Amino acid sequence: MEISIKGIRRKQCGIIESMAKLLHIYTIDNPEEESFLRRISKDVPKQEIEGEEFQVFLDDLIYTAQNIITEEGYTASGLSAIQVGRDVNVFCILKENSSVFEIMVNPVIDIISPTLIIDREGCLSIPKTEGQVARFEKIKVTYLDRNGKKQRAVFKDLEAREIQHEHDHTKGVLFTDKLVD
Ligand SMILES: [Zn+2]
């Protein structure tokens, strides 16, 4: 059994440094992991969000998204819980023009513009593969933030694409299911 130290430690300069760890990314190259990636994720009960165990998991999810680099040198712009072996309806996405990842719990997407944009995508769970995918240009997302507080916001362009890609993961859908010529 692996023992890990959890919690936070305060450095002398006053900055709180997380003890978060890098999580293993499930890929379709492993048949068992591929079948896990096809699961439909479960909603997280609101009371569970504030719990220490879940907060540590969210720190680890963000830490992994921030620090992962693929063999081809790509970094992550989003990461879903299912991709690190937890079938709960949670993902993080990179906020545009920043290095901050935002957590979305139990997100619901409303399409507010029927315009579709085709652009290139890749996925940490599908190594060495890229493809063109059509996504809605503008969406409204209702979700719980990492404190369990209800949020509703409009996202467009790249952020909207990232959210739709991660939201598909929570439904067991991979971008390679949606490739356009
Ligand atoms: Zn992905």
TrEMBL record:
Residue ranges crossing the lipid bilayer per the database entry: none
MF terms (GO), sorted A to Z: metal ion binding; peptide deformylase activity
InterPro entries linked to this entry: Peptide_deformylase, Peptide_deformylase_sf
Coiled-coil annotated spans: none
UniProt keyword Ribosomal protein present: no
Free-text comment on the cofactor: Binds 1 Fe(2+) ion.
Cofactor (UniProt): Fe(2+)
Binding site for Fe cation: 123, 165, 169
The keyword Protein biosynthesis appears for this protein: yes
Location of the active site: 166
Primary role: Removes the formyl group from the N-terminal Met of newly synthesized proteins. Requires at least a dipeptide for an efficient rate of reaction. N-terminal L-methionine is a prerequisite for activity but the enzyme has broad specificity at other positions.
Protein name: Peptide deformylase
Organism listed in the record: Candidatus Dojkabacteria bacterium
Gene: def
